[in-house]
Amino acid sequence: MRVDTENIISLSEKDSTHELQEYLSSVTPEQLTTVITNTALKGKDIGALIKAFFKGSPPSLPNGVSRRALLYQHCISLCDSGDLQTEVASDIMGLLMLETHSLPGPSLAQLSSLYVDAIKAGKMGNGKSLELFPTILTALAGTKALAYGKGELSGEEYKKQLINTLCSSRWDPQYVIHLTTMFRDVPLSPEELQFVIEKVLRMFEKLELQEIPPLIYQLLLLSSKGCKKQMLEGIIRYFEQQDEQQKSEQIEGENLDVEVQSIPQDQLRHVEGTAILHIVFAVRLDHELGKEFLKTMKASLGEPSRVLCSFSIAQLLSLSRIQRLEEQVFDFLKGSIIKCFKDEQVQQGSKFLQDLVAPPCSVSTMILETVKNSVFGWDHVTQGLVQLGFILMDSFGPKPGPFGKTAEAPSSSVRSPTQLACQLGGQILLEGFKMHEQIRGEILEQVLNRLVTKTASPVTHFIDLLSSMVTSAPMILLESSPKVMETFDQLSYLPLSTVEGLLKAVQPLLKVSMALKDSLIIVLRKAMFSSQLDGRKSAVLGFLLLLKNFRVLGSVSSSQASQAITSSQIQADVHSRYNAAANEAFCLEILSSLRRCLSQQADVRIMLYEDFHDVLRRNSKLASSIMQTLLSQLRRYYEPEQDLLPPLKLEPCISAQGDHVFLQEPLSHLLSCTVHCLLWYQGLHARRPNTGDEEDDDDDEDEGGFQTELQTMLESVTRRMVKSELEDFELDKSAEFSMASSVGVRNSIFAALLMGLYEVLIEYNFTSANYNKNRFEELLQLFSRYQKLCEIVKEKAGKSRASSKAPRSLLSLGFISSLLYALFRDSTQSREESLAVLRGSADFMRYAVGVTVHKIQQLEETGHTDGPDGHHADKAFHHLCDITSVLMWRYTNVPPAAEDAGKKTGSRSVSVLCLEGLLRVFTTVQQRHPTRLAQLLGAIDVMEEEGGEAGDGLVEKLSFYLRQFQRSLMTQLSGSEEDFSSREAQLLVGVLAVLSCRLESGSPQLEQMITWTLKICKETSFEDVALTKGLLSLLFSLLALQRSPVAELWELCQDIHSQLGDIDQDVELEKQSHFNIVCMKTAAPTTLLVLAQVGRLLDEVDWLITQKKTQAALDKGNADLLQATGQQDRVLKAVTLQLGTLLTALHELLQSALPPGACTDTLLRDLSRTYGLLTSLLKYYIQLCASHQSQLPSRLEKLVKLSGSHLTPQCYNFITYVQSGEGSGGAEKKKKKKEEDAMVAASAKVLRQTKVVPNLIFSIEQYEKFLILLSKKSKVNLMQYMKLTTSRDFRINAAALDAVLQEQQDPDSQQTTATQTPEQSQEPKKKKRKV
């Protein structure tokens, strides 16, 4: 029988369904499926047909149920086939949804199983039918009971079982998105939702990369039901794994020189960017999702490297554009960055921690990767990057010091966490500036704004950033030249250091932009007439910088003159738009402006004099103008009459306003500048080949005049200065140098000028003498005048107790290098006779080395020195190498004992000064040039007695020179006490400390150094406090590179106890000595050193416990992992052993009769910290016990037992000892002290104890409180090892209190009281010892 579709539809339109039911009953299942298929394919009447089938198949009849079930099954497969039009399939699904709730439970279960089987088999077709599955599952959950196996389940349980089965089965990757979309409409319990999200997250790795963003979008919609944290962590973990895989493939490809890429980098970055946008969009709509994301991140703040990666950082920066989250995001990033840097610093400083904890991922690397990745269209991230960069630089940049000034911090190779964070901010902005055109203008504007507005704070970090920006993208900055010009307008109001940095940074732009250069010239000319001194200084600084960098045609090339400009376009512009001939007029115009400065304040003139030599060397064609300027200025103070003394007029060099006298002309700087320029000019002509050019000859004729005149003038000044006595300058021994009177100020200024003049003339005469004996004799006469003046000034300063520092030496670093070589190393036969004159003066040699030490100290503190080449790092370093070579040779070849006989009383030997210079050099290079230490050591050519030579590598060179200094120290220590020089020994220890810190951890050289230092400390018995401190500090610094020094600390504590005696005077101690260096005199200083190390070890233990507590909190959900952690953790084992050994060491100190004051206070503070750490450890185990039932480690019980037996009882005894004042000793002598001093000391002591002692008692009681709590949690009685204190009255002396009360009640019986007082005062002391 043929099924008539129209007939079925017409029958369904009647009110009665009887005929329709009869008709449908006659239709076979095959016919039913055929007519449904044919009608659906035609797309007509399918809706009416399905409705007719539903109407004619009432769910109350068995055949109606079966017909409906068949209809559902066939329509599901038909919709999945993909043969139907989309609209038709949607209509069918809609009709089926309407009737789903009328199906009985077994039919629903059958349909559900059909879906599950299809999903397992991967036969879902196009997945259209999944729209119906949520309705089926919802209806299924509403049924009361369903047969399952041999029993029954409720509909809800059956649904849960189905979902569990579904999530446990294999999913075809092409259906993952459909299934995730489907689950959005399914009512899920939290447990079911967790199953689903876990399954979807596991499927990420099986999908194509381009399918990830739509799946994340569906996941985000699904997460509105819950499990937000799990979903977000899964997404972050997936992209982190993809990044790691991509990196490893890239590295592998580089190693193999082939491209190995399973995932193209650009495709991965675009997918990540889309995913980030999806999450940001979802967070904008769902506030809870944003809160959960930040909550997830903040939960890991203790260990940020576990959640931070390039993707999560980009996600956070994108979320920062949402106003309500902005502050939280940047606070979290700031905290995470500084925490990571601090953790890195803690680990780098201790080999003990490095062996226990793996180094975390570098947060700076991850953030810079985010910047690098943002080039792939991550516009939503770039704004956050800019903001983060400036926040880091503002928050962690250098801070102003006292009075708004900041001393230049030494550029040490080891940077603090705040410096690293600030540096990271600069790197973020620089990389962002290079990569993203749209943010360049904003970055430049904000940098320039900060240079102008932050006048009270240092802005060196912003200047460095601006300089890097100019170098990396000069043409971009030229487009923003109006902003730079606006900044120029503020130059005269900015601090001098800011002006210098800014002009140096933008200097390459001035060569190519006439507008910028003209703008700057106008600003500088205005500043030249500023009413503020700093404004005029800024003008001079700017003009000098221009002179150095705009070279005139024909100027000799200088290594310093050429500044590299990275853009080839700029180089082309330099040659096309500006030529050297035009620069000459420009430079001469600037020079005429600078001549006006020669009538201004001394500070302005000094700036000119210090930089003219540099200008001359970079721009040699300006020599004539500069030399004529200096000559005319010098003539003002020169006495032309050859017979008159003195040859220089000092009176015009000072000015007076009322009683105030001040320096007007820094004559010594003027002469120094003239001498250095003249010497350079002479050297230039000596090196220049004779070309025979007429123009050059004309120049020589013009310039020869000033050269001859200056030489004559200097020779005359030298000759007459030798003849001039100090009385000629009114500076004899009777002169007044008090800074309180105008005469004293005048004389002090004259003395400073005169000392500078002597030094300049010494340098000139040595350089131009050409090793002439007579000239050297004149030089020594100059020096004797200089020395005599120094002694007078020093004597007068000592009498007046003036704290003014001696003026800095004007000798140049290059001259000092040449002088030292001539004095100590020059063995040329022709110079022997002349050099013998200088070498015969021990005072002069001592002066030469002393000035060297001061120069190196200046280099160490500021990074530069006065004089030529002082500001040029490379040349200064080469001079340093030459100086070091001479100092090393002199120290190793001429022992101090050989010069003791001719040494003045109270003055240091040349060898000791050489050693001090070596220490300064090594410290300076370690701080300023850490990567060039091998080059420095290579420059030292010390001839060893054994003929050995240092190796090529840094470690070999270090080892070689360490042995040299070890031998020198052994010579000192093995000699007699009369020959022992404490200063030399201390310097040797200092040198060993500086050099040995560069030894590699675990190297045999370091092991040998530790063994040697330990042997010295154990066998040396000199009672020298400073040497003891130095040796022990060296030992501790070496041990930190290799292992924990806890065993040595314990032995030292035993020695201290043995030397100082016990707090109970009745106890006789067995004399034992592990370290002979510890004696009665050095015990107290050693105690402070030991306690400082104990504090450092406590810091390390604290850090480890904090790491473990954070890790336990992050792994809270994984009980198995926690249990394994609690039982077999080597970190916890190390913490317990470390604390145990520290307890035994503190036990020794608690019994020692320490002197009152710093020792007892520090010990009590360290004890408080120890109990605090013990409490933290207990809290960690309480945290573990709360997560699961586990047995406490036996080592923890031993530690608690040790604290109960060795620490707590001794703490109370020690408190009693400290408060009884027994540690002061020598009671009778102490009583003779002045009453006021005793009262002040007593008040300070009481104030200290009121803070320290209660804190310790509180720490002990907190420890006992948590012991009780852990005992309850773990069912282990830990309190059995502790003896609880039964009273808190250990501070109250009952007998003394009774005595005072009795005195107040019976004032008339003073004599009786007086006779009883000794007895009453003795009794409490006995009681205190028994407590």
From TrEMBL:
Pfam families cross-referenced by the UniProt entry: FANCI_HD1, FANCI_HD2, FANCI_S1, FANCI_S1-cap, FANCI_S2, FANCI_S3, FANCI_S4
What positions does the domain FANCI solenoid 1 cap occupy? Answer: 6-56
UniProt GO molecular function: DNA polymerase binding
InterPro entries xref list? FANCI, FANCI_HD1, FANCI_HD2, FANCI_S1, FANCI_S1-cap, FANCI_S2, FANCI_S3, FANCI_S4
Report the CDD domains cross-referenced here: FANCI
- Give the GO terms filed under biological process for this record: DNA repair
Domain spans labelled FANCI helical:
288-373, 558-794
Q: Where is this region: Disordered?
A: 1301-1331
> Which residue numbers delimit the FANCI solenoid domain?
66-283, 381-544, 810-1035, 1050-1298
Q: Where is the composition biased (Polar residues)?
A: 1302-1321
Q: What is this protein called?
A: Fanconi anemia group I protein
Q: Which species is this record about?
A: Clupea harengus
Gene (UniProt): fanci
